[in-house]
Design a protein that fits this description.
The protein is of the alpha/beta class. The protein is globular and about 60 Å long. A hairpin with a 4-residue loop joins β16 and β17. Helices cover 34% and strands 22% of the residues. The protein has four domains: 123 residues, Rossmann fold; 124 residues, Transcription Regulator spoIIAA (2-Layer Sandwich); 103 residues, Transcription Regulator spoIIAA, CATH 3.30.750; 57 residues, OB fold (Dihydrolipoamide Acetyltransferase, E2P). It has a six-stranded parallel beta sheet, with helices on both faces. A five-stranded mixed beta barrel has the order 15-16-17-19-18. It has a three-stranded parallel beta sheet with strand order 7-10-11, with helices on both faces. The chain has 13 helices and 19 strands. α8 packs parallel to α9 and α12 runs parallel beside α13. The structure holds iron/sulfur cluster. The site of iron/sulfur cluster has 10 residues, from α6.
């Protein structure tokens, strides 16, 4: 029997798609009367939303679920469910391997969560991991108290089959949501107080409205018209599919922010080919040039994998030189790890952990220098900042994001939360900018 006041501990691993799904889960569970708690010890229901993109993330999930065994022994009424990509990948193997688990559900089964919890309360253990046939999930679930910023999925899955990536196997093939439904969700979020929307997809450039054929640039234009929405971001763009239409849309639509995540993965043509990325270093740099020509203030982000099978020192140095050439504002970098089902997992020329580790350290050190220099180059500029609330560190400081997505901290009153203000940048730090408020210029307030 569960306690009368039900509590759920919802843990999220991995990418923004998972963060988005977790918000939807939290909304559904709140409707069932579950209040969220931070600590698993205080919960009647524990839901893990998992990631299998990298081996380390997957191992963390197994060790975390293993630790919950003790809790289940102490509180036999505790329900434990595992969702996300590890759930999709492992299916009912997880139930067999971990007898203290109650249910397992893949990303497409998120809307079935209330039913799965209900069944678990009646003692039924099950795995729900069927990938949807052709349509993207169509349920609109607005999180309780969504805040100023929110995410909206425009498409799920991926058709690209990069040789290292598990996503097409655990998230399925590309499926776009109808534009009408995306707009309905954006409007509902704006009505709930959201002012900045991030449109999500593994490869937003191949968005294609199943009803009207609208492409992603067209979708951006429609979202740009939503009243009382101030800012639009999107992720992720595949470099091979970044078309002129999207670049023009970024340059011409006032609410679309000057920020783009354009994952290169490697600076070496040999590696890009082995990764099945569909572009060369030259083509990638050409895309960056075209983008910067139209959107000069754009802040660029990237992902880089070090130690892909067969990566020579020379290949790695090509990645370092790509960083120097592009000068990213932010970078996610990872050591290659074998993933189930993938072609790269079956390659032979694997690198040892020490080599991968030292390359990662070198790459990240270089990016720290570049990132700091890029931030220092912002000093003296006046930036429009959407104020999110008091800064985590520093008394009397408020924090928000610039149009390019950089964190900006500045002295100011808490009443500014939810408004757009202008801030003069006075200092560039490694992960943020510091500035001073330019008074009485913000007209929009939430
Ligand atoms: S584009 Fe490549 S890396 Fe990105 S999700 Fe698709 S298969 Fe994975």
């Amino acid at each position: 029997m569960i306690e009368p006041s039900k509590k759920v501990c919802l843990r999220t691993f991995g990418c923004q798609m998972n963060a988005y799904d977790s918000l939807r889960m939290a909304g559904m569970l709140a409707d069932m009367g579950y209040a969220q708690v931070e600590e698993p010890d205080a919960a009647d229901l524990i839901v893990l939303n998992t990631c299998s993109v990298r081996r380390l993330a997957e191992e963390k999930v197994y060790s975390y679920v293993g630790e919950l065994k003790r809790l289940k022994r102490e509180k036999p009424w505790l329900i434990i469910g595992v969702g996300g990509c590890v759930a999709q990948q492992e299916g009912d193997k997880l139930l067999r391997r971990l007898p203290h688990l109650d249910f397992v559900f893949g990303p497409d089964a998120v809307p079935s969560l209330p039913g799965l919890v209900g069944d678990a309360l009646r003692g039924k253990r099950q795995a729900m991991t069927k990938l949807g046939p052709s349509a993207a999930p169509s349920q609109i679930i607005i999180p309780t108290a969504p805040g100023l910023r929110a995410m909206v999925t425009v498409m799920t899955g991926c058709d690209n089959f990069c040789s290292y990536c598990v996503v097409p196997y655990v998230r399925g093939r590309e499926r776009s949501r109808p534009a009408g439904e995306v707009l309905q969700e954006v409007n509902a979020l704006v009505e709930a107080g959201v002012r900045e929307i991030t449109l999500l997809g593994q490869n937003v450039n191949s968005y294609h409205d199943p009803d009207s054929g609208l492409d992603f640039a067209g979708l951006l234009a429609r979202v740009n018209e939503v009243k009382d929405l101030w800012r639009i971001r999107f992720t992720t763009s595949h470099p091979k599919d970044l078309g002129q239409g999207l670049i023009e849309a970024m340059a011409g639509l006032d609410k679309v922010m000057e920020q783009m995540h354009l994952p290169a993965q490697s600076g070496s043509n040999r590696m890009l080919k082995a990764m099945n990325r569909g572009y060369t270093r030259e083509k990638y740099l050409e895309q960056v040039r075209r983008l910067r020509e139209k959107v000069p203030a754009v802040a660029l982000g990237s992902d880089i994998i070090v130690g892909f099978p067969g990566e020579s020192q020379e290949d790695f140095e090509q990645s370092l030189s790509l960083l120097r050439e592009v000068r990213y504002d932010f970078l996610y970098s990872f050591k290659y790890s074998d993933r189930p089902f993938t072609r790269a997992g079956r390659l032979e020329d694997k690198l040892d952990e020490d080599t991968k580790g030292s390359r990662l350290v070198e790459l990240q050190a270089l990016q720290r220098v570049i990132g700091l220099q890029e931030h220092q180059a912002q000093v003296g500029r006046v930036e429009e900042v959407l104020v999110e609330g008091p800064a985590k560190h520093g008394q009397g400081l408020m924090s928000g994001r610039s149009r390019a997505g950089r964190v900006v901290n500045f002295p100011g009153p808490p009443e500014l939360t939810g408004s757009l203000v202008m801030v003069r940048i006075t200092q560039g730090r490694e992960n943020s900018l510091a500035g001073e408020l330019i008074p009485a210029t913000g007209e929009n307030t939430a």
